[in-house]
């Protein structure tokens, strides 16, 4: 192997920051001479293809394996699994259905069922499905999840490029129905569009702010797309502080026209009881609410495949 073969990370600026084409030309081999490391058998493994135009001038084209490596690094930086490297919105196993909740301009009246019962007591006892029907109109989507999330992502990409306010997204439902996977799929879409994306568990995200490892304004404004997983499941010894910071994060991102995606095993009634009117106003006023329902548990299904792979 040629000792001058270029390093991927040099190209994308992670080691030496070398990104100039002349440096790539000096180090890259002719792809036909020694094809060994390129998974597509196109380049020499450097990610570079040196070619000449009609005038004899040399120029460099990037191989698909180079683009794959750049995306891998972006996924790592975004804290998103490399499983999403080659995934796109065409994925659909036909088991997940989505209902879209549209907030009512005026919510229906809460029914007080017991004598001398306070409104808060009635709210606590109210069935979560009745709460949803009071606050939202519900549309059961006939499109596949892939079609829905593709449309959502493409429209938001268009809006942020026009410096217009995008729509945030709250995915909720039971465990194992693909909320986190779909959120990461959206994140991968924006990474491929050269947008800054970050995925974090909500509790860890808040703790990093609480422990002063990061500045709330800086971390809230740094990413074009912020994915907060396990929203509502966050626990903090200072719950008042946590709610204040969560409200601050959502407001900062809304004002800066940045996309926030949250996933949760909770439901709108639980959100209302925990977060109160101020945060609920932000959730209802700036987020799409998608309820995901799946026939079976996706995690268990994947584990069944793992059993088969191991021959167990």
UniProtKB/TrEMBL annotation:
Residues 165-296 form the AAA+ ATPase domain. GO terms for molecular function: ATP binding. One of its GO terms (biological process) is DNA replication. Pfam families: IstB_IS21. The lineage of its organism: Bacteria, Bacillati, Bacillota, Bacilli, Bacillales. SUPFAM superfamilies: P-loop containing nucleoside triphosphate hydrolases. This is ATP-binding protein. Keywords: ATP-binding, Nucleotide-binding. SMART domains: AAA. CDD domains: AAA. Transmembrane segments: none annotated.
């Amino acid at each position: 192997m040629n000792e001058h073969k270029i390093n991927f990370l040099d190209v994308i600026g992670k080691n030496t920051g070398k990104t100039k084409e002349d440096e790539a030309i000096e180090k890259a081999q002719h792809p036909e001479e020694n094809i060994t490391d390129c998974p597509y058998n196109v380049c020499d493994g450097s990610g570079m293809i040196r070619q000449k135009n009609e005038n004899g001038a040399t120029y460099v084209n990037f191989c698909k394996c180079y683009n794959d490596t750049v995306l891998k690094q972006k996924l790592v930086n975004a804290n998103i699994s490399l499983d999403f490297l080659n995934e796109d919105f065409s994925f659909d196993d036909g088991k997940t259905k989505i209902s879209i909740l549209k907030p009512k301009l005026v919510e229906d009246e809460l029914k007080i069922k017991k004598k001398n019962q306070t409104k808060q007591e009635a709210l606590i006892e109210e069935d979560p499905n009745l709460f949803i029907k009071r606050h939202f109109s519900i549309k059961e989507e006939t499109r596949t999840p892939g079609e829905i999330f593709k449309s959502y992502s493409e429209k938001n990409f268009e809006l942020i490029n026009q410096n217009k306010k995008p729509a945030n997204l709250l995915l909720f439902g039971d465990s194992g129905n693909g909320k986190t996977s779909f959120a990461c799929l959206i994140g991968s879409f924006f990474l491929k569009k050269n947008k800054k994306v970050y995925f974090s568990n909500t509790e860890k995200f808040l703790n990093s702010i609480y422990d002063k490892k990061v500045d709330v304004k800086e971390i809230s404004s740094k990413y074009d797309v912020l994915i907060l997983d396990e929203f509502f499941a966050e626990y903090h010894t200072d719950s008042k502080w946590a709610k204040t910071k969560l409200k601050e994060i959502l407001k900062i991102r809304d004002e800066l026209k940045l996309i926030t995606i949250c996933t949760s095993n909770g439901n709108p009634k639980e959100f209302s009881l925990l977060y109160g009117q101020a945060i609920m106003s932000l959730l209802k006023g700036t987020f799409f609410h998608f309820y995901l329902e799946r026939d079976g548990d996706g995690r268990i299904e994947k584990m069944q495949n793992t059993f088969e792979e191991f021959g167990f």
